[in-house]
Amino acid sequence: MLETLNFTGIIIAVCTFFVIGMWHPIVIKTEYYWGTRPWVIYLIIGVVSLVGALFIENTIISAAVGVFGASALWGIGELFHQKKRVEKGWFPKNPNRQYDIPKS
């Protein structure tokens, strides 16, 4: 019975869950320590991962790398949203970091 089941979709879903869960605290910590400046690093990681996924023959690994890359790209927007959440007071500001004064 088990040999007739295809676990690929479930494995990819679990990988996706963990990758997205991993990026959430990375975005929060990145904004806390460095602000939004590292968005370019997220872009490079995302593009390299997505291109790399094109050349990986194993479906599960290719999907996991692709999800990692897409999450990095999604993280760019989340980085800027996190900045706004900090400005609203929903997340703490880093007392050791210089913040730009918002223009009114």
Low-confidence stretches: none
Strand content: under 5%
Overall number of structural domains: 1
Helix content: 55-70%
Largest sheet: none
N- and C-termini, Cα separation: 65 Å
**Basic shape:** elongated
Care to count the β-strands?
0
Number of helices: 3
Note the run of SSEs as H and E. Answer: HHH
The radius of gyration is 17 Å
Give the rounded overall mean pLDDT. 94
- Indicate the structural class: mainly alpha
Task: Describe the model.
It is built from three helices and no strands. By secondary structure, the chain is mostly helical. The protein has one domain. Helix 1 (8-34) packs parallel to helix 3 and helix 2 (39-54) packs antiparallel against helix 3. The N and C termini lie far apart (65 Å).
Features of this protein?
single chain; elongated; 3 helices; 69% helix; 104 residues; mainly alpha
In short:
The protein has one domain.
Q: What does the secondary structure layout of this molecule look like, with pairings?
A:
Elements: H1 8-34, H2 39-54, H3 59-87
Helix pairs in contact: 1-3, 2-3
